[in-house]
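Wed. Picked up where I left off yesterday with XRE family transcriptional regulator. The coffee machine is broken again, so keeping this brief.
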Amino acid sequence: MLNKPCIGFGKFIKESREFKNLSLEMFADQLKVSHQIVDRLEMDLLHPSGSLIKKLSLVLNVEENELFNLIWCENPVKLHQNHF
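Structure written out below (tokens, as returned):
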């Protein structure tokens, strides 16, 4: 079965960024993307590719596979766990 975007992954990304005390612009710089892309990610409007997931995992210090599973679900569910 193909994976579908999880509901609420953007909130996880935003909370993780804020936990690291990174502004949206600082986070975008570290990811080497525009702040508009980060904004869209945090609002669940953009679903990152594998290469962006890799960058996110490095910047947020989250295992790449764990992050992939938070973003792409077999059965989309709302995220309830705090993964800091």
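Quick read: Helices lie at 9-19, 24-31, 35-42, 50-60, 64-71.
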